Amino acid sequence: MRVYLLARNPTDSVTDGFLPAARRLGLDVTVLTDQPAAHRLRAPEPETLGCDVRDFRAVIARISAHHRPDAVFTNSDHLQTQAALAADYFGLPAKSWRAAHATKDKAEMRRRLAAAGADPVRAAELPAGADPAALDVPYPCVVKPREGVASEDVVLAADAAELVRRCAEIRARRPGEALVVEEFLEGELCTLETLGDGRVRHLLGGFHTELSPPPYFVEERMSYVPAHPGPVTAQVLGQLDALGVGFGACHTEFVVSGGRARLVEVNYRAIGDQCDLLLARLLGIPLFAHILRTHLGEPLPADLGVRTDGRARLSYPCADAAGTLTAAPGPADLVVDGVELTYRPLRAVGERHELHRTNRDFLGVAHGIGTDQERVDRAVADFLAAQRWEITP
């Protein structure tokens, strides 16, 4: 059976998660990407073909001229709609392209939720060239690219003057892109991880997320929770239903305040930044294989057999200045006080980077897995406190 995997830049999710899972399932994989050299360097085994994967017509044409597909799949935020349209064209199991589009386009997501009466958030779309000063929005507010990802160019504005300035800064980096300005949602930031086949939907727990200080929203630490309170989960699932989300993996971010759950964004894919790799280990399930099987049309088991006693924490040491990384710890795999501790560098010594105020500032990722949250937290914090990163301007 052949799976066409659509991708842009290489990611740990694809290289260390989906490709090994596909090999174990005996699948033939063809990677379609607009960055073939980077993928061949990172993972030379699968067949890799160049393609303008941002255009669903190019994807369909490339597949039609090659081998017959059994699945068209992507874990990219940027390519969910294209993959859904291509899979549907070939009569294969797929996410609804409408749901994929509604979750990617943040303005459309707000409109869909408002139309369904599902806890609307005050928001306004700002087309390229439009004047942000004319918007009727509450302050403080958040401005973000309409189709952005990973907190890139997401920033808090305290008043109208700051909103105008922030929009100008973002537009200088993203000329011609539409923005979204919406009310700031106060409360605890959480995630819900789900996996469905269109018939059954499994809840895989979620995370509590700690962010960098405002005005930016960089995810610095995440702690796993096996389950959120029932009423909170029900609210989130109701909003996902309103968007038509229910097939394959989904990573949903939401804020909880006073028992009220309000969506921040819906990423219609598996959680990234190595959280998915941790989740598979923590739950003791072949997560990536389940996701691939779903796209091959196989039903999910009624019981995934997940472990429920696991606890975990991820921490991302971040660059605080632009420059060249001149000293940093190497990879580590340790067991400390019963906690499985792993550290992986995300930036090589000698690399120079600007300061982005996003997850592109991550220098590495440390995560611990155990059964006692306090021990897990302490093991990760102690490990990071003993390390040293140096950035030379």
How would you sum up this structure, described in words?
- The protein is α+β, with helices and mostly antiparallel strands.
- It folds into three domains: 2-94, Rossmann fold (3-Layer(aba) Sandwich), CATH 3.40.50.20; 122-183, ATP-grasp fold, A domain (Dna Ligase, domain 1); 188-392, ATP-grasp fold, B domain (D-amino Acid Aminotransferase, Chain A, domain 1), CATH 3.30.470.
- Helix content is 30%, strand content 30%.
- It is built from eleven helices and 20 strands.
- The protein has helices at 12-24, 36-42, 56-64, 80-89, 97-104, 106-115, 160-173, 230-243, 275-283, 287-295, 373-385; strands at residues 2-7, 28-33, 47-50, 71-74, 123-126, 141-145, 155-157, 179-183, 188-197, 201-211, 219-225, 247-257, 260-267, 311-315, 323-327, 332-336, 339-345, 352-353, 364-370, 390-392.
- The strands form four sheets. A nine-stranded antiparallel sheet has the order 13-12-9-10-11-14-19-17-16, with helices on both faces. The chain has a four-stranded parallel sheet with strand order 3-2-1-4, sandwiched between helices. A four-stranded antiparallel sheet has the order 5-8-6-7, with helices on both faces.
- The longest helix is centred in the middle third of the chain and has 14 residues, at 160-173.
- The protein is globular.
- The termini are far apart.
- The mean pLDDT is 95.
